[in-house]
Structure formats: structure tokens, C-alpha cells
Amino acid sequence: MRNNGDCRPGRRRLLALAGGLLLARAAGAAPGCVISPAQTEGPYFVDARLNRSDIRADAHPGPDGMIVAAGVPLALALRVLNAGAGCAPVAGAMVDIWHCDAAGIYSDTVDPSFDSRGHTFLRGYQVSGSDGAVRFLTIYPGWYRGRAVHIHFKVRTDAGREFTSQLYFDEAVTDEAHAHAAYRGRAGRRIPNAADGIFRDGGARLLLSPQRHGDGYAAAFDIGLKAA
To answer: Residue 140 and residue 82: Cα distance in Å, rounded?
Structure first.
């Protein structure tokens, strides 16, 4: 699916709201000290090394032109914290995120139901600053059979540590977001969080609570890393 992807004023407002949510979490303090549970990387990780904040479009136009993932904008702010050192921010961490589009398709992947090789939509990384934070602009993920709605993430630190897990969504917000035209007309039924076997292994501690802003959403999450 494609759209024009041009929402620069809205992009700035959404990213600012996501950053504000991180500051609010910092003011509330304690939740960031909870160690985040690791979860499976899954079959769709590609170490594409795409250093970018806005991950909605292909990094480079291909034979089919520039692909921009259609869907409801989502600004996501993540903060990497060392839970074994008083929740000190982890600077210099490489944080990748990747997820499917509104139709349940991952980019740059061969799957029995799609072949998206050569496309790079909805993949990218950022490096955390002195506050441990990274920020992305993406779309609200779609879904595919057997899984609840989710975003994968991977953290790699200067010390050579690697941590991989997934983020999930409040289902009432997902119902609202998926009423958008980009998500309609899909065969099958979306799996609720409680019916997802991977979610049941710690997913309740990996839940996002996106806030509505304009035509999109913003969400923030603190990733608590265990001491190395």
C-alpha cells in the first residue's frame, strides 16, 4: 500500500508528543526500573543498518518506485535504561525496530504469502543519546494470522550486549486505529493479546498505551536492561 507520506507539521507534533510522554514517564520514575522481558526475534529481522527516524518509506526507490506504508501515523519514543545501575540512561545504544504494514507484510522478506525483497519500509534504527532515548515515526502496525499486533525491537550496546523483545498495544486503541481504511478488508481475524502465545510470556510488561494526537498516535516505553 502507498500514500504520499507528507505530513511534516503533523510529524513534528507527533514526535514532540512522544518525547513529552517520555519526560512524563521520567517524572513518574519507578516504571523504568522494571527489567523488560526478552522475547523472540522472529523470522523477519533484517540487519539492514538503516539509520533513520521516519521509517515509513523505502530507504531507496526500487523498480516499483518509492513505497510508503499506508496507515495511521504512530510516533514511538523509546528510552534505554540500565535497571542494574539505578535506571541510568544507556547512551550510544543502537535500537532497531521493525514490524508489518497494514496488510500484515514485512519488507525485504520472502514468505509463503508475499515476496517483498528489495523494499525497506517499516525498518530502521536510531542511536540513543545521553538521555537513553530514541524516536521513530512509523504507522500503527497491522496484523497477520497467529499473532497479536506488535512491534519488534532490538537493542545493541557499545559493550557488545544484545537484547531483543516485542511491544504490544492496548486493544481498545487498536480497534480504533484499525477502523482506518488502510486496515480494512482483511481475511481472517485478529488475534487478541491474551490468545497470543508469545504475548503470554511477559507481554503484559511490554504494553504500549498510545495517546491520540491529530490524525495519529504517540506512545513511549522505557526498556529496562538487566545488568550485564
So the answer is: 28
- Spatial separation of the C-alpha atoms in residues 213 and 13, rounded to whole Å: 8
Find the length of the chain.
228
Residue 162's CB is within 10 A of a number of other CB atoms, namely 11
pTM for this predicted structure: 0.89
CA distances from 212 to 17, 81, 95, 117, 177 (A): 10, 26, 24, 33, 10
| Residue-range domains of the chain with CATH | 8-140+147-225 (2.60.130.10)
For residue range 94-124, list pLDDT tens digits in order: 999 999 999 999 999 999 989 999 999 999 9
Question: Cell numbers 485478529 correspond to what residue?
Answer: 190
For residue 87, pLDDT beyond 90: no
Residue 93 near residue 109 (C-beta atoms within 8 A): no
